[in-house]
Automatic annotation (TrEMBL), chain A:
Membrane topology: Multi-pass membrane protein
One term of GO molecular function: branched-chain amino acid transmembrane transporter activity
CDD domains to which the protein is assigned, alphabetical: TM_PBP1_LivM_like
Cellular component annotations (GO), alphabetically ordered: plasma membrane
Keyword flag Oxidoreductase: no
Keyword Transmembrane helix appears in the UniProt entry: yes
Chief site of localization: membrane
InterPro entries from the UniProt entry: ABC_transp_permease (IPR001851), ABC_transptr_urea_perm_UrtC (IPR017778), LivM-like (IPR043428)
Full protein name: Leucine/isoleucine/valine transporter permease subunit
Residue spans crossing the bilayer: 67-92, 129-151, 158-176, 206-227, 255-274, 294-318, 330-356
Protein keywords: Cell membrane, Membrane, Transmembrane, Transmembrane helix
Subcellular location: Cell inner membrane
From TrEMBL, chain B:
Keywords: ATP-binding, Hydrolase, Nucleotide-binding, Transport
GO CC field: plasma membrane
Protein name listed in UniProt: Lipopolysaccharide export system ATP-binding protein LptB
Gene transcribed to yield this protein: lptB_5
InterPro entries from the UniProt entry: AAA+_ATPase, ABC_AA/LPS_Transport, ABC_transporter-like_ATP-bd, ABC_transptr_urea_ATP-bd_UrtD, BCA_ABC_TP_C, P-loop_NTPase
Broadest EC class assigned to this enzyme: hydrolase
Pfam families recorded: ABC_tran (PF00005), BCA_ABC_TP_C (PF12399)
Nucleotide-binding recorded as keyword: yes
Keyword Nucleus: no
Molecular-function GO term, any one: ATP hydrolysis activity
Domain ABC transporter residue range list: 32-274
Any coiled-coil regions, as ranges: none
CDD domains per record: ABC_Mj1267_LivG_branched
EC numbers, comma separated: 3.6.3.-
Automatic annotation (TrEMBL), chain C:
Pfam families: Peripla_BP_5
Gene3D superfamilies: 3.40.50.2300
Keyword terms: Signal
Superkingdom, natural source: Bacteria
InterPro entries in the record: ABC_urea-bd_UrtA, Peripla_BP_I
Record gene name: amiC_2
Name of the protein this chain belongs to: Aliphatic amidase expression-regulating protein
CDD domains: PBP1_FmdD-like
Region forming the signal peptide: 1-28
SUPFAM superfamilies on file: Periplasmic binding protein-like I
UniProtKB/TrEMBL annotation, chain D:
Record's protein name: High-affinity branched-chain amino acid transport system permease protein LivH
Biological-process GO terms, alphabetical: amino acid transport
Membrane association type: Multi-pass membrane protein
Similarity annotation: Belongs to the binding-protein-dependent transport system permease family. LivHM subfamily.
Organism, scientific name: Halomonas lysinitropha
Length: 381, 281, 435, 535
């Protein structure tokens, strides 16, 4: 069974091992070790880690399309945000009559914008199963339509990147509009409970953290399974020699579409896990800059090696947290410098470094020198 | 009555069910048939009503100076480029102008690029595996499993192209000649009816050339593949014999045995005399 | 820098994410009183927020010069939420949970406040919010030292209606909650004063909108209908420069169609060539040109602190000045920095503002402010042309929105409710269940 | 208020005609002057108005100066000594002043001790029309025209007769026409229906206002006539607004072109995705600001000089980026995207820390502010007009460079076949540097132009980078003409949509349009055809 395939890979086992170990460790240190003790992990840190993990899942999704399919999407933030909004809408409905205006149905922002009833697209989001379904379906649907158009007409390389950027930019502007009924610039916030758990308790936070970790593990396995299957090899083929793949009789655009949609859905899930942990979703998640940042995580961690994406996401965001605290006025220098140095001197990212150590399954494929091919192609595009 | 029996007969295939990818019909001789094909890029006529007929099982060499339109012709046959006018038929049933690359490929037309293009990130074995004629839709591909006969087939081809040793190394590390062979091998995996081979011996050593020559001559033949070779190297062309077609400025200049065309004054003129649009295309 | 910052260890680079995170104990330092500053130092909002950070740092310096508070040093804890709304929440949590600050001064945009709000309420912190805002909110843990709509928008409109004789109104704003709400309130207010529907034009533009040609020419057209017309602008920061430039170039001078802005202060004007703008209006609760000694002292101190002769002060800075002093006063009164004690102590505290009067903290956590209307001068200052006879108390819930007409807010015992519904006589909503 | 509006200019005019104008008998006792100014320093604006009137009637020759300074808010009074002074420079804390009575230098005074004699918009309006009347007597025709235009809608009973005489003696037809209309508006206010005849066809907004209010007159005849005249005017305006929208579109388009054209070179020709492009634009804008700081008082000169300066600064920055980052990323365009994004972050924060997070003021020189009046209803804003022209010039120059110069040739050679070009003795690295410098320099030029339209601040770049990419891609990468056409057309589309769709929706629609367009034409408006373009 192809889904089980990854469990035979040393690298994947190692990765899952480390991940789950960390989850357990944090949980223990948070619950067992008394507060104040130097080893205690505060609820603050737990939430922070939870956020990083959801970013990591997002990065894995991006790496799937960029690393293995050679499609640089500068619009994955859009899928992430859509997933987030779907979750946010559910959480908003859960507030019920505890909003400032005490309206049992309408969220606060609708009350003071004088909406008399819920717009149709808010219906059903009070049911968790429906909302969670939408978390995957909405980004998936967008990816399907967008991808169908783009791949069918063979928009490639930089052109594709730019229109994905246009897509997320347009969505951002749209969501900023208050008429859209998504809270405009303020977005959705003041969440209270998720599936009956009070979001403001540490227990729930820990739960969310673990859930995110598990989701990351599953997402990773799924991606590995795809990558290790023949379909994965076809994707790499599309990446390195699209024309050749066509002449072998593969309908390249369909493969691209399939992987793109899967990746979009993963991004949606990541967004859904992100929102309850940070407590707000607003259009800034759609901003093209954010999407570029995601790509940077992947590049920094090591493109074309899923675990690299994870490392990258964790590293960059951790660095961001640290810098913004330690050197508020200068952290952008550090971050910017990091991006420059890594792209110039570590073309294969951190994973590249690791790859010198182990030479296991899955480390080989997609490493950067083999990418030169498709990139020079993108150059001519 | 016969209709009913045909219903009962589970193997009976109704005409309307015959898919476009049904075996190519070569009862009328030619397997490939180009008529009055023209195409131009930004005003420059790359192909100027070209007429060409390849018979089933034939081994045909196509020569011509740069810009003669050789590669463009291949692009047209394989559906990469659409001609401005003219018609292209595969056998007498399939109008290639209505199909896209994958369809054409699955009809049984394999193409080797001028610049050898293999999947460098994948191993030699995987390269062949992908080329293997199989159900190439998404889910089957996703769940595809490596069966014994697939393995055998791949081994067989590995042998033909003499890359058994490098089976598991990434194709990226192959020498230029080896890549050429691997690519030919990938074509063989497709079990094509017609092979379009663009400059197969470019950058090959003498021995490599000979091996390639054998390989190609071995391939062609009635009921087997038809082979179209585009080549600059006269020596090589002579060595694999077959009919030779000379392209010049997008149309056929001369056709016949190597000796005939070699003695054709116009051909000599084209090859020796400076060509006006050397750099074009 | 931040001596007690757990991340100081250079280990962070080497150590893996988790181990480093584990090694970040929540240090509880007893001696200094920690003051958190939560203003964007990078990103789009840095333009407005950096000066506020400096202001608080200056105030702390001064306080320490006077021997601190309760005999304890004050210590600033600065973080950079980078104009990134979720990051605001995260940083607030960091300040309260990790740094254990006693009070936070911060935020500019409504969305950043909204994202911080749940955190501050959950961890029971103190937040002083210095910017004029849309109202419709009253949190137990937030003190709104900026203007509520009734302390800025309504008086300004009154001035235009009565003293300038404006009959036709353009409500132009950036498309986010503050302009939306303000314009809704104004719309209702104007209609209640007999302004016809066709005499009100409402227009929204995206953030940082830079091409105003069409809109300005529309306004021009709208203004040529034989009635005195004015523009009430809630256009946000960056978009103002191109807007005013376009006004100037299309020849709309203040004498024809005055623009009264609620988000354009001295700070913003430093980025604009004010020559063509002379006479356009702004409504605030403080102007740098206010002619009082306390103000001149503040300005001098500020110039000393920044070392820039040209440094300007503005309304949110005054708000922080007031907020900081109120908090200090409340701490003295309570004799402790304990949040609950301070929360109770601060209601009713009144401290001098920079316009020569006093600001008092109301039970609804808003303060009393005078309302000033100023005309832009060619030197980037405002000359005050009108002011309210007395100070106005901030109104958390607008009387002109049916949603909130019946709501009042009073955080004194026994009511302790941010949105008490006087009709139903119940405390509807958020705080009900968190008590 | 109303009363004053009625009296003020009239009185001024009368005394002029009675010959006791600023040439009048010299009653030079400062006492009188002091008294006049004293009365100005009154709490209520009505009192101030009367004081102004008094000053006018006094015919004191200093009154013109006083009124000007009053208008400029420079007429101030010392709190303690009560001395009236005129502030010369009011930016820092201590202001140089001169005595308001003697106009002699009075040293410096702290802003603490000075009281401004404030006026409000109402007073300002009247002062302006009062001064306008005075300008009717200058020799410069344009001033007279402006003055006359200023009088539209502010004529009143006492002025009528004198104005008639002015008209009689006025030799410029335009001024006469305007004054006629000014009178006509007054007569219309009195309900004279014939007056409408004189106003017909005028596109001046004040005239329209007058007619509009006339339509609400109690006399039905007047009302009908007015609305008839109005209808005709509206008709003409429609044509105008059409042209106006087109102009708006082109002007927006020119901005897009300017921002994108540099990218079209670095990105289109070199295949480098330079995310720091926006910051290079920003550098250009800051250069303009710096130049204006260096040359205080002559913004025009500064602006002109900053054209080469901006180009240089940005170009140098470009070279720095190319040498330090991009040269290591040959043939890895997507990597350049990532690295240059880092660079852009650094540049932004650099500006924030070195200069200031606040926006900087860039002054528009005289000859670039205001607008060029095509007719009363249609006038083109000068700064945008200049930018539009500038964009076209820059484009033309670039075309020249690429087509006619050695550099252009080498650039094209290198981009088409690096190895070949090398073997032909072209130093590819040098060409790379030059190309990137060129593209960056052009970005700098864009910055110089943008400093006249929008904020000069750390975020300037970010607001344009995405649009720039859209334009280049829409136009077809590697094709300068494409960029020009794309930029202008997108601009026009946007402005045409805006009135009915609103600014936000218009932008969204444009974006969606681009996306769909790219589906249809995957290589933009002007794709490079043939095998060269294929992967």
């Amino acid at each position: 069974m192809w889904l089980m395939q990854p469990f035979n890979e040393g690298a994947t086992r190692l990765f899952l091992g480390v991940l789950l170990a960390c989850l357990a460790l944090v949980t223990v240190l948070h619950l067992a070790v008394p507060a104040g003790h130097p080893l205690h992990v505060s609820a603050y840190t737990v939430t922070l880690l939870g956020k990083y993990l959801s970013y990591a899942l997002l990065a894995v999704a991006v790496d799937l399309v960029w690393g293995y399919l050679g499609i640089l999407s500068l619009g994955h933030g859009a899928f992430f945000a859509l997933g987030g909004y779907a979750m946010g809408m559910y959480l908003m409905r859960q507030i019920g009559d505890r909003g400032t205006y005490g309206d049992p149905i309408l969220p606060d922002f609708m009350v003071f914008l004088n909406w008399d009833s819920l717009p149709w697209y808010w219906l059903g989001f009070d049911m968790p199963w429906f909302a969670f379904l939408m978390v995957m379906l909405v980004p998936g649907a967008l990816a399907l339509v967008f991808g169908f158009l783009a791949f069918r007409s063979r928009v490639t390389g930089v052109y594709l990147s730019i229109i994905t950027q246009a897509m997320t930019f347009a969505l951002m502007l749209a969501f900023f509009r208050n008429e859209m009924g998504f809270g405009g610039n303020n977005g959705l916030t003041d969440f209270r409970e998720l599936l009956g758990f009070d979001l403001r308790t540490d227990a729930t936070r820990l739960g969310l953290f673990i859930a995110t970790g598990v989701a990351l593990a599953l997402g990773y396995v799924l991606c590995r399974a795809i990558v290790a299957s023949k379909l994965g090899r076809v994707s790499v083929a599309c990446r390195d020699a699209e024309a050749r793949t066509r002449f072998l009789g593969y309908r390249v655009e369909r493969f691209q579409l399939f992987v793109f949609v899967v990746s979009a859905m993963l991004a949606g899930v990541a967004g859904a896990l992100y929102v309850p942990q940070v407590g707000i979703i607003n259009p800034s998640e759609f901003s093209p800059i954010f999407s570029i940042e995601i790509v940077l995580w992947v590049a920094l961690g090591g493109r074309g090696t899923l675990y690299g994406a994870v490392i990258g996401a964790l590293l960059v965001n951790y660095a961001k947290t640290v810098f913004t605290g330690v050197m508020p006025d200068a952290w952008l220098f550090a971050l910017g410098g990091m991006f420059v140095l890594v792209t110039v001197f570590l073309p294969r990212g951190v994973a590249g470094l690791l790859a010198y150590r182990f030479k296991g399954q899955g480390f080989k494929r997609g490493s950067n020198e083999t990418l030169s091919h498709d990139i020079s192609k993108e150059a001519s595009a | 009555m016969s209709f009913l029996s045909s219903l009962a007969d589970r193997d009976h295939v109704f005409d309307f069910l015959v898919p476009a990818t049904s075996p190519v019909d070569v009862r009328h001789g030619p397997i490939l048939y180009l008529e009055d094909v023209s195409v131009s890029f930004d005003g420059f006529k790359a192909i100027d009503d070209l007429n060409l007929t390849i018979d089933d099982g034939e081994l045909r060499c196509i020569i011509g100076p740069n810009g003669a339109g050789k590669t463009t012709m291949m692009d047209i046959i394989t559906g990469k480029t659409r001609p401005d006018s003219g018609s292209v038929w595969f056998g007498s049933r399939h109008n290639l102008l209505t199909m896209n690359e994958p369809e054409i490929a699955s009809l049984g037309i394999g193409r080797k690029f001028q610049k050898p293009t293999v999947f460098e990130a994948l191993s030699v074995f995987e390269n062949l595996e992908l080329a293997m004629a199989a159900d190439k839709r998404i889910l089957p591909t996703l769940t595809a499993r490596m069966t014994g006969e697939v393995r055998d087939r791949i081994e067989e081809v590995l042998e033909t192209i003499g890359l058994e040793a490098l089976r598991n190394g990434p194709a990226g590390i192959l020498s230029h000649g080896q890549k050429q062979w691997l690519e030919i091998g990938m074509l063989l995996m497709q079990r094509p009816r017609l092979l379009l081979i663009d400059e197969p011996v470019a950058g090959m050593t003498e021995q490599e050339m000979e091996r390639t020559a054998e390989l190609l001559t071995g391939l062609a033949g009635k009921g087997k593949q038809s082979v179209v070779v585009v080549e600059h190297d006269m020596g090589f062309v002579r060595s694999i014999a077959g009919t030779v077609t000379v392209l010049h400025q997008g149309s056929v200049l001369a056709e016949g045995s190597m000796d005939q065309v070699a003695s054709d004054p116009r051909v000599i003129e084209v090859y020796l005399g400076a060509d006006p649009d050397e750099e074009a295309a | 820098m931040i001596p007690s910052n757990p991340y100081r260890t250079p280990r962070w680079l080497a150590a893996s994410l988790l181990s480093a995170a584990v090694a970040t104990p929540a240090l509880a330092q007893e001696d200094p009183i920690k003051v958190g500053i939560l203003h964007s130092l990078s990103g789009t909002m840095a333009i407005s927020e950096t000066v506020l950070k400096d202001t608080v740092e200056m105030l702390i310096e001064q306080q320490n010069a006077e021997g601190g508070l309760l005999g304890r040093e004050l210590e600033a804890v600065v973080v950079d939420p980078a104009s990134d709304w979720p990051l605001f929440a995260e940083k607030a949590r960091e300040l309260l949970a990790q740094e254990e600050v006693d009070v936070i001064f911060g935020n500019w945009t409504s969305v950043s406040r909204k994202s911080v709000l749940p955190v501050v309420e959950e961890l029971n912190g103190l937040l002083f919010y210095p910017v004029q805002y849309e109202g419709e909110e009253s949190s137990e843990n937030v003190f709104y030292t900026g203007a509520a709509p009734n302390q800025q928008a309504i008086p300004a409109v009154n001035y235009l209606m009565n003293d300038v004789g404006v009959e036709r109104w353009v409500l132009a704003g950036t498309d986010y909650v503050y302009p939306r709400t303000t314009n809704k309130i104004l719309d209702a207010y104007l209609k209640s004063h007999g302004v016809a529907d066709e005499d009100i034009m409402i227009n929204y533009t995206p953030f940082g909108h830079s091409d105003w040609q069409n809109i300005v020419s529309e306004i021009k057209d709208f203004g040529s209908q034989g009635k005195k017309t004015a523009v009430v602008s809630t256009i946000n920061g960056d978009a103002n420069v191109p807007f005013y430039r376009e006004l100037g170039n299309q020849g709309l001078d203040a004498a024809d169609i005055p623009v009264v802005a609620f988000s354009v202060g001295e700070q913003e004007l430093t980025g604009i060539d004010t020559g063509p703008l002379v006479g356009h209006l702004a409504a605030w609760n403080y102007f740098m040109s206010v002619d009082t000694d306390v103000n001149y002292d503040f300005i001098d101190a500020w110039i000393e602190y920044t070392g820039d002769e040209m440094a300007v002060t503005n309304d949110p800075m005054e708000a922080h000045y007031i907020g900081f002093n109120m908090w200090a006063e409340a701490v003295r009164k309570a004799g402790t920095t304990d949040v609950d004690a301070v929360k109770d102590a601060i209601i009713g505290v009144s401290v001098p503002n920079l316009t020569g009067g006093y600001a008092a903290m109301m039970p609804n956590h808003h303060i009393t402010k005078p309302v000033l209307i100023g005309e832009i001068q060619d030197n980037g200052q405002f000359s005050i042309v009108w002011e309210t006879p007395s100070t106005v108390a901030g109104d958390a819930w607008s009387d002109y929105l049916e949603g909130s007409r019946d709501l009042i807010s009073d955080w004194r015992k026994p009511m302790e409710c941010g949105n008490y519904n006087v009709v139903e006589g119940s405390c509807g909503g958020s705080e009900a269940e968190t008590e | 208020m109303w009363m004053i509006r009625a009296v003020l200019p009239g009185v001024w005019l009368l005394c002029l005609l009675l010959g006791l104008a600023p040439t009048a008998q010299a009653q030079q006792q400062t006492g009188q002057g002091q008294a006049l100014l004293e009365s100005l320093d009154a709490p209520s604006y009505d009192a101030k108005a009367e004081a102004i009137e008094a000053i006018i009637v006094s015919g004191d020759e200093r009154s013109r100066r006083w009124l000007d300074e009053l208008l400029g808010g420079k007429l101030q009074r010392h709190k303690d000594t009560g001395r009236f002074v005129i502030v010369l420079e009011n930016r820092s804390r201590n202001w140089p002043v001169i005595d308001a009575l003697t106009f002699e230098d009075a040293g410096e005074m702290s802003r603490r001790d000075l009281d401004r004699i404030g006026i409000n918009n109402a007073l300002r309006g009247q002062l302006q029309s009062a001064l306008a009347v005075l300008d009717l007597y200058t020799d410069d025709v344009d001033d007279r025209r402006d003055a006359a235009r200023e009088l539209l809608g502010s004529v009143d009973a006492p002025m009528v007769e004198p104005l008639r005489e002015v008209i009689a003696s006025e030799d410029d037809a335009e001024v006469r026409r305007l004054l006629e209309q000014a009178l006509a508006i007054h007569r219309l206010e009195q309900g004279e229906i014939e007056a409408i005849a004189d106003l017909e066809g005028s596109l001046n907004s004040r005239v329209r206002s007058a007619l509009n209010s006339a339509t609400r007159s109690d006399d039905p005849l007047v009302a009908d006539a007015a609305s008839a005249a109005l209808a005709d005017i509206e008709q003409r305006l429609r044509i105008n607004s059409g042209l106006e929208t087109l102009y708006f579109g082109l002007s927006l388009g020119s901005v897009l072109v300017l921002a994108a054209i540099g990218l079209a070179i670095t990105f289109g020709v070199m295949g480098v995705i330079n995310m720091a492009h926006g910051e290079l634009i920003m550098l250009g804008a800051y250069t303009t600001w710096a130049m204006q700081q260096l040359l205080p008082g002559q913004p025009g000169l500064a602006l002109v000089l900053s054209i080469p300066a901006g180009f240089l600064v940005a170009a140098l920055a470009g070279v720095a980026i190319e040498r330090s980052v991009i040269q290591f990323l040959k043939g890895r365009p997507l990597e350049t995207l990532l690295a240059t994004f880092g660079v852009s972050l650094i540049l932004q924060q650099l500006v924030r820390t070195v200069i200031s997070p606040q926006n900087r003021t860039v002054v528009s020189p005289e000859w670039m502010s205001g607008s060029l009046m095509i007719n009363e209803g249609l006038s083109l804003t000068l700064n945008r007009l200049f930018v539009l022209g500038f964009a076209l010039v820059v484009f033309a120059c670039l075309m020249l460079v690429m087509r006619r110069t050695r550099l252009g040739l080498e650039v094209r050679a290198v981009t088409q076949n690096r190895a070949m070009a090398r073997s032909m003795g072209i130093r590819a690295t040098r060409v790379d540097i030059m190309t990137f410098a060129l593209g960056s320099g052009v970005a700098g030029l864009a910055g110089v132009a943008l400093s006249q339209l929008t904020n000069v601040g750390p975020n300037l770049g970010q607001n344009y980078i995405i649009d720039s990419f859209m334009v280049v891609v829409f136009g077809g990468v590697g094709n300068l003409w494409g960029t020009l056409v794309a930029g202008l057309s997108l601009g026009v589309i946007n402005q045409v949509l805006e009135p009915w769709a609103g600014a936000v929706l218009a932008k969204i629609i444009v974006l969606v349009f681009i996306i769909l367009f790219i589906q249809k034409r995957p290589r933009g408006l002007f794709p490079q055809k043939g095998r060269a373009a294929e992967g």
